[in-house]
Amino acid sequence: MKSLLYENLRDLMQKQLFEKITIKQICDQTGVIRATFYNYFEDKYDCLNCIVYHDIAEGMFDAMGKTTVSEALEEMLKNVEEHRKFYRIAYNVTGQNSFEDMIRHNLTLVFEEYLNRHRKPGKLEQYSNDLLSRYFAECVAFDIREFVFRTDDSITVKDTRQMIMDLMKTGLSDLLQTVRE
Q1: Which of 28, 73, 103, 166 has the most CB atoms within 10 Å of its CB?
Q2: Could you tell me which CATH class the domain 1-41 is placed in?
Q3: C-alpha to C-alpha distance for 109 and 102, rounded to whole angstroms
């Protein structure tokens, strides 16, 4: 039922502005009463966040330990690509509960869990997993936005995944000829 509700919100967002969508419309499209919606979600922003969690975080959590971060990123990008039209619309949800903040938040959850499980001892110990996960989430959120709005169809999911991995592995000092610290 939860997935039916958020998938119907996804569908409605492709027909009208998020701000104009009501809980009643989501429920009517799903064929349930309002109480059913509130069994799963606090409000329509929570429902929208569930879409982000499903598309971005859920698969990466499932892949944790079974596959590489690179492969998990590729699967996540495939989900985003499948719903690119929706993402282009959803980025218009701004303000206190912005869509982009939802992406950052869900990526932070994923990266923090990866770091909690797999962080190498002795690597940048002065920086907490929280700080590092927010840093990497910010970077990947930027990359997702670039991917969603890219008009060059020759850039594939694999190309984008490789770019993310390359950029996460490379520090600024690796790119500069002379660096003064």
Answers
A1: 103
A2: mainly alpha
A3: 11
Coil/strand/helix, residue 2: helix
Residue 3 has pLDDT above 60, yes or no: yes
Question: Phi and psi of 4, rounded to 5°?
Answer: -65, -40
CA angle 55, 15, 153 (to 5 degrees): 55
Q: Are 132 and 115 in contact (CB under 8 A)?
A: yes
Residue 113: CB atoms within 10 A of its CB come to 16
> Do 3 and 55 form a contact (C-beta atoms < 8 A)?
no
The answer to whether 5 and 37 have CB atoms below 8 angstroms apart is yes
Q: Give the tens place of pLDDT for each residue, 43-67.
A: 999 999 999 999 999 888 888 777 8
**Biggest distance spanned by C-alpha atoms of the chain:** 64
Measured in degrees and rounded to the nearest 5, phi and psi for residue 10 equal -55, -45
Which residues, 6+ apart, have CB-to-CB distance to 69 below 8 Å? 114, 165
For 178, the 3-state DSSP assignment is coil
Tokens of 36: 């059913």
Rg of the chain over Cα atoms, rounded to whole angstroms, equals 18
120: how many CB neighbours lie within 10 A of its CB?
Answer: 8
3-state helix, strand, coil in the chain (%, to 5): 70, 0, 30
Residue holding tokens 């709005």?
149
Residue 140 is predicted with a pLDDT of 94
